[in-house]
Amino acid sequence: MADYDFDLFTIGAGSGGVRASRVASAHGAKVAVAEEYRVGGTCVIRGCVPKKMLVYGAHFAEDLVDAKQFGWDIGETSFDWKRLRDTVLGDVDRLNGLYTETLENHDVTIFNERAEITGDHEITLASGKVVTAKYILIATGAEPAVLNFPGSEHAITSNEAFHLDEMPKRVMIAGGGYIANEFAGIFHEFGAKVCIVNRGDQLLRSYEPALSDRLLKISMTKGINFHFNTTFKSITKNDDGSLHVELNGDDDQTVDCVMFATGRNPNVKGLGLETVGVEQGKIGEILVDEYSKTNVDYIYAVGDVTNRVQLTPVAIREGQAFADTVFNNDPKTVNYDHIPSAVFSHPPISAVGLTEGEARNQLGNIKVYQSDFRPMKNVVAGRNERGLYKMIVDAATDKVVGIHMIGPESAEIMQGFAVAVKAGLTKADFDATVAIHPTMAEELVLLK
Ligand SMILES: Cc1cc2nc3c(=O)[nH]c(=O)nc-3n(C[C@H](O)[C@H](O)[C@H](O)COP(=O)(O)OP(=O)(O)OC[C@H]3O[C@@H](n4cnc5c(N)ncnc54)[C@H](O)[C@@H]3O)c2cc1C
Ligand SMILES: NC(=O)c1ccc[n+]([C@@H]2O[C@H](COP(=O)([O-])OP(=O)(O)OC[C@H]3O[C@@H](n4cnc5c(N)ncnc54)[C@H](O)[C@@H]3O)[C@@H](O)[C@H]2O)c1
Predict the structure, then answer these.
(1) Is the pLDDT confidence value at 1 over 90?
(2) Three-state DSSP state, 351
(3) What's the gap in Å between 225 CA and the centre of ligand 1?
(4) Are 241 and 235 in contact (CB under 8 A)?
(5) Which of 306, 328, 350 is the last residue of a domain?
(6) For residues 397 and 400, what is the distance between their CA atoms, to the nearest angstrom?
């Protein structure tokens, strides 16, 4: 029997890697993890968490205006980006400390450096140290996809957005997905003039089109500009630091910041996958089976690096299932059906299950219920912004197969309703539930 330094070596201390490492250790394994940047990974350090804190900050912009209609005279207001940025980064430091502590409390050895697979069961750290492990877990996440054209080096990605020295006055965002729409809302509420440049004509392609259309309408009313079917030709830096952007399909623009939000690619460069023959897919993603095992018997991969579903709760589940399967003799897989999700745009979008189009294709006979309403808070505030909820029902079984919402707090509302859809409840079950009045969520039990 070979003797290894560790039972498990995890590369990457993000959402998936931290969960897998601490659970494997709790199951009795001797575990080490390498992290090249900061323990916590994308979600905690430069993703979901700091992003949501900025979203909270951004909400004040409209609340402070709306306050007047609710009787409050607030006087002149101003926004201090550096104060918010430093508060957020301070909390990120706190969370980074907590994640490190969790690993240490579980006796996981942490190497704060880059790791690479250099041979069978062998990992080499940036410092040159070589260690061996019975199992290797690759949990290296994904990195922003950057566009390549003359001057593209002047653009930033979401990684840099959290550290900006100043709030730019004019921001151009490339892409029409999650990050583009979330940051368009954030920058806009903080006073920047924002435009989105999208190569196609559809925002948030995986979402119900009626909702992305509603977000587009609301965003345009707020003053966010959209350039559809448009691509980048070049960026030139002007003497005053501003950026001259040449576009294909639209007029040139001068802005202070260009941000790429054009997807995230699996983080596989320089990992040594070829050395041990780990199979990869079209964009480099690591191919795994339902137990997150690669074609190499002792190497597993979880999270964004496998490009299954790029969401933190999914990476965490995959990490947990891996640790239970390999170190607790309790084979577990992740069920990818009915994963709820949200876009923290202004207002937010949330969804679970099939869109109307998907349901029609898969089930044929469906019923669609819809509520298009103006939330009470918006009515009082004099804000002409409507919410839209859609419910998709399988006509044959009466099962609710999809719920789609845009409106205030829709992400918070969705979490509870996702349980009902996951459990396979019917429209009749929804109808039998007494409403909580007055709420926005009650719309979903009152759909006729
Ligand atoms: C701006 C933004 C907002 C997001 N918002 C949300 C959200 O609201 N909700 C949601 O569910 N998801 C959100 N996501 C997605 C979420 O962050 C990811 O799905 C999640 O972090 C994936 O976890 P992971 O463990 O696969 O990888 P990660 O959390 O990315 O962790 C991978 C870690 O591996 C490290 N690493 C990489 N290579 C090496 C190496 N060779 N050696 C050592 N270490 C290495 C990296 O530094 C990183 O810390 C967001 C992402 C971004 C970018
Ligand atoms: N609220 C959340 O849960 C949340 C928030 C942010 C990010 N995320 C995760 O992170 C991932 C990455 O976010 P994202 O917004 O970068 O990706 P995305 O996949 O949501 O959107 C990418 C956008 O870039 C465009 N695009 C892709 N390649 C392009 C190219 N070569 N030229 C021009 N445009 C191009 C696409 O058409 C699309 O509009 C998401 O898929 C999501 O899983 C989740």
Answers:
(1) no
(2) strand
(3) 29
(4) no
(5) 328
(6) 9
Catalytic residue check, 346: no
- 194 within 8 A of 218, measured Cβ to Cβ: no
Is there a binding annotation on residue 45? no
The β-bridge partners of 131 are: 123
Return the CATH number at 202. Answer: 3.50.50.60
Q: Is 55 in the pocket of ligand 1 (CB under 6 A)?
A: no
CB 197 within 8 A of CB 232: yes
Q: Are residues 167 and 38 in the same domain?
A: no
Ligand 1 centroid from CA 43, angstroms? 5
- Flag whether 167 is in a domain: yes
Q: Which residues lie closer than 8 Å to 81 by C-beta, 6 or more apart?
A: 164, 166, 167, 190
Q: Is the CB of 125 under 6 A from ligand 1?
A: no
The ligand that comes nearest to the alpha carbon of residue 273 is 1
Look at residues 266, 256, 263, 199 and name the one whose alpha carbon lies nearest to residue 226. Answer: 199
Q: Are residues 246 and 155 in the same domain?
A: yes
Give the domain-ending residue among 261, 282, 306. Answer: 261
Other C-beta atoms lying within 10 Å of the C-beta of residue 363: 17
pTM, whole model, 2 decimals?
0.97
Q: Is the CB of 16 under 6 A from ligand 1?
A: yes
Give the CATH number of the domain where residue 380 resides.
3.30.390.30
Is 101 marked within a binding site?
A: no
Whether residues 160 and 64 share a domain: the answer is no
Q: Do 430 and 299 share a structural domain?
A: no
Q: Give 192-219 pLDDT, tens digit per residue.
A: 999 999 999 999 999 999 999 999 999 9
What is the whole-number distance in angstroms between the Cα of residue 368 and the centre of ligand 2? Answer: 28
The reply to whether 137 and 170 lie within a common domain is no
Residue 335 located in a structural domain: no
The Cα 207–Cα 366 span in angstroms is: 18
Please report the atom of ligand 2 found closest to the CA of residue 179.
Answer: 15
Tens-digit pLDDT profile for residues 39-63 = 999 999 999 999 999 999 999 999 9
Ligand nearest to the CA of 348: 2
- Quick check: CB of 304 below 6 Å from ligand 1? yes
pLDDT in tens, 337-363: 999 999 999 999 999 999 999 999 999
Q: Is there a binding annotation on residue 263?
A: yes
Flag whether 181 is marked binding: yes
Q: Is the CB of 155 under 6 A from ligand 2?
A: no
- 291-344: pLDDT as tens digits: 999 999 999 999 999 999 999 999 999 999 999 999 999 999 999 999 999 999
